[in-house]
Amino acid sequence: MPEKFTVAFLGLGHMGGPMAVNLVKAGYTVAGFDVVPAALEAARTHGVPVAASAGEAVSGADVVLTMFPGGRHVLDAYLGTAGGPGLLAVAAPGTMFLDCSTINVDEAREAARLAIEAGHRSVDAPVSGGVVGAEAGSLTFMVGGDKADFEAVLPLLDVMGKRVVHCGAHGAGQAAKICNNLILGASMIAVSEAFVLGEKLGLSHQALFDVASAASGQCWALTTNCPVPGPVPTSPANRDYQPGFAGALMAKDLNLAVNALHSTGVAARVGPLAAEIYDTFAAEGGAGRDFSGIITDIRDRSNAQGNPADVAASGSPAAGNPAAGVPAPESPAPPASQAAQDDGSPE
Question: Is 177 a catalytic site residue?
Fold first, then answer.
């Protein structure tokens, strides 16, 4: 490919728009398109040339970069729908198809297979870093594909990100992304539960942060995206949980991880439960809030249950209240098993 490729950038939403802007600023010839008129207008306002259709954007492009909500959108765009030609048919032979969407690993591998069979090249490169990273050009790209293809798109990715990792063959980028976000989602729940527990025990947010951030509880969910305001001034908690990385996106990514857990036979328990927790959070008003807002859900549910110590002191017949004549169990009963989610949530 030429040193400065011509890029068809399809998907100009909260992430794709700023990424396309950075490519234009770096001197790339970009033709953008999105099915949402507001996204097209926002991109145009920020200097991204826009096309009248996806087909027009792809015609003559060296690289077709897609940033779509889900795997079905990617595959439909590649193959075409309602009798219309897909991107694979419109693109010139040997075009590089660079998909930066976050989708199922199997869908990423299918997209690569379709592109290669149509005479093109393919790389999957999902991102981490959120809207702030997209705007700053500081994203992390996790890349799957042949080494030669990885090296071909590396200059492009370097413009949009500060860290680019070649994870392996087709689909490996998606595998790395969902494994990372499985850790992130579960750790944010644990950090949030710890802060709510600290509140109940009379521990200040700052005291808990000062200890855990310098001890074995240290993690990104605590030190960068801290779910309570104060200790980390730049965290979304200080902006009423404006994302950031929205709860709906975390729910989506955790469901992608659950799909992979099931397909590989991993005996996971935390991942499916984390997916269920974020599904509920998104469905009950957290979809557009930062995923660290899960702490508000944990706090609300905790307060709704009341204080067990107060209940026991009142003499109500709760388990473990000697005054009520009900002995405490030797060990707490295990929680009921949680049903795993089998389908990926739309972004």
Answer: yes
